[in-house]
Design goal:
With about 525 residues, this protein is α/β, with parallel strands linked by helices. Among the domains are: about 180 residues, 3-Layer(aba) Sandwich (Rossmann fold); about 100 residues, ANL, C-terminal domain (GMP Synthetase, Chain A, domain 3, 2-Layer Sandwich), CATH 3.30.300.30. The protein contains 17 helices and 24 strands. α2 packs across α3. The model has no long low-confidence stretch (mean pLDDT about 90). It holds the Pfam family AMP-binding. One of its GO terms (molecular function) is long-chain fatty acid-CoA ligase activity. Keywords: Ligase.
């Protein structure tokens, strides 16, 4: 049994009643039980193996917004060993073609809105079969995915799968260049699942609403797969619509949730936010960027346990979070800048350039090890070797630890500027500025300065009717040392975001990087 325990779906199925609701497809109004999902997975597995001639280690891909077919494919992988890859359909066709050529999927499932890109794929890649998930693209002769689901029921397949076999390709984020393909094994997926269940006390009584796109690790691995493995319920929709999210919270009563700060911000700005009953939630987690204190206060004031967390595609993403089920609201407020403490199965260090541990309170690079670790970048040994130097995953994030053991992100190694010979990490400054009541969002960048080399510039989205620069400057002097106070301030209507919903630093530097 050694090497084959973690991937055996029967270990999960025996504890889950087939009549329990597994997935609610909100957009289509369809509710699927666990029995439905296992049957759909068997149909897809049999189709891929017997009619498409796929085998263990082959890849299938999706270019679509969220759909129940993603979960069909995930569960079918346990029967076939076929790898699933999900593409960010918002990327340019040329970027997607580079990913496709690297990963070599044999079958691609797509939504009608991607039809123009699909024509480019057909001319420039070796994909063998295409299926339309939903929509009716004009001029397409590709078969409909649901035709596979209309086939007669069939028994599940059995395939010998090792724990180190690759289960999924996930793509790293970033604002420049084509994302790298991270290879995620059955072992990594299993430990990520158990980590979430243990840390957050997930059970079959829990429900999560997943509107984050399933081309990101956060949508797959934070709550979603762990809940499916322990018999919980997932609600899916094709995108984020604030009014719809608040409506579903009232109707379906989800118990746990994760999103990026921009999502929480937009929800809190809805007229119906204060009327929506959030008491169903045990906790909410924010990731991808540091949430601003003023925004979080709108949730805390209603007794909602919301906090920042930390995770990376290559090492989780279940890496660090506040123990929200244990802490008082006062402590959650006190530690709001923190990304928490390590979750189960994470070995964490903060090191200097010589891989020596730095003292408590000192800033260094955050590195990880443990069974959640990825299996490297596909066909990119050079980049894999760089990030795995010394046997530890180098995150590129600078961090410190306080006397209570809580971790704080200071910023990216590259997202800093040097002023008067001192390294200035922008995330720390943004956290302070974000606590000012009239600030809705902020990005701090370094700009050239004749005297200091570089100085800080704060690009701010503010409530202009409540913003006073003189009072704001006084606030900065009270909360930041002189060298960290931005020399320049520019008010803007909004900050540009990338496809991952994070601040687009290259765009911000291009637009506002001059004095």
């Amino acid at each position: 049994m050694e090497g084959k325990l973690l991937q055996n779906l029967n270990f999960y199925r025996k504890r889950t009643s087939g009549t329990r609701e597994a997935i609610y497809d909100y957009d289509n109004g369809i509710r699927y039980t666990y029995h439905d999902m296992y049957e759909r997975a068997s149909k897809l597995a049999n189709f891929l193996v017997k009619e498409c001639s796929l085998k263990k280690g082959d890849c299938i891909a999706f270019c679509s917004s969220n759909d129940v077919a993603f979960f069909d494919a995930y569960l079918a992988g346990f029967q076939t060993g076929i790898i699933i890859s999900t593409y960010n359909f918002k990327l340019h066709a040329d970027e997607l073609i580079r990913l496709i050529r690297n990963e070599k999927p044999k079958v691609l499932f797509y939504e009608a809105g991607c039809f123009e890109k699909i024509q480019e794929f057909k001319k420039n890649t070796a994909i063998e079969r295409y299926f339309v998930l939903f929509g009716d693209p004009a001029g397409s002769s590709d078969p409909c995915y649901e035709a596979i689901m209309e086939k007669p029921s069939c028994p599940p397949l059995e395939t010998s799968i090792e724990d180190e076999d690759i289960q999924m390709y996930l793509h790293t984020g970033g604002t420049t260049g084509t994302p790298k393909t991270a290879m995620i094994s059955y072992r990594a997926m299993f430990y990520n699942t158990v980590c979430d269940v243990f840390t957050n006390a997930l059970s079959m009584t829990d429900t999560a609403y997943v509107f984050l796109p399933l081309f990101h690790t956060s949508a797959w691995n934070i709550i979603t797969v762990p809940l499916l493995m322990c018999g919980g319920k997932i609600i899916i929709s094709k995108g984020f619509v604030p009014k719809t999210v608040l409506k579903i919270i009232e109707e379906e009563r989800p118990t746990v949730g994760m999103a990026v700060p921009e999502v929480y911000k937009r929800l809190s700005e809805e007229d119906s936010f204060m009327r929506t009953d959030f008491s169903c939630y045990k906790w909410l987690s924010s990731g991808g960027a540091t949430a601003q204190k003023a925004m979080m206060e709108r949730y805390w004031s209603r007794g909602i346990r919301l906090a920042n967390g930390y995770g990376m595609t290559e090492i989780g993403p279940h890496n660090m979070t506040l123990p929200l089920l244990e802490l008082s609201m006062d402590t959650i407020r006190e530690k709001w800048r923190s990304v928490g403490v390590p979750m189960y199965f994470n070995s964490v260090r903060i090191v200097d350039g010589n891989m020596e541990d730095v003292p408590c309170g000192t800033c260094g690079e955050l590195v990880f090890s443990g069974p959640l670790l990825f299996s490297g970048y596909l066909n990119n040994d050079e980049e894999t070797a760089k990030v795995m130097e010394g046997g530890w995953m180098h995150t590129g994030d600078m961090a410190r630890q306080d006397k209570d053991g809580y971790y704080y992100i200071a910023g990216r190694k590259k997202h800093m500027f040097v002023s008067g010979g001192e390294n200035i990490y922008t995330v720390e400054i943004e956290a302070v500025i974000g606590a000012y009541p009239a600030v809705r969002d902020v990005c701090v960048i370094g700009v050239q300065d004749d005297r200091w080399g570089e100085v800080g510039k704060a690009v701010i989205v503010a409530e202009k009717e409540n913003y006073c620069e003189e009072e704001f400057r006084t606030f900065l002097k009270q909360n930041l040392c002189t060298i960290k106070i931005p020399k320049y301030i520019q008010l803007v209507d909004m900050l540009p975001l990338n496809n991952a919903g994070k601040k687009d630093l290259s765009q911000i530097n291009r637009l506002y990087g001059s004095i």
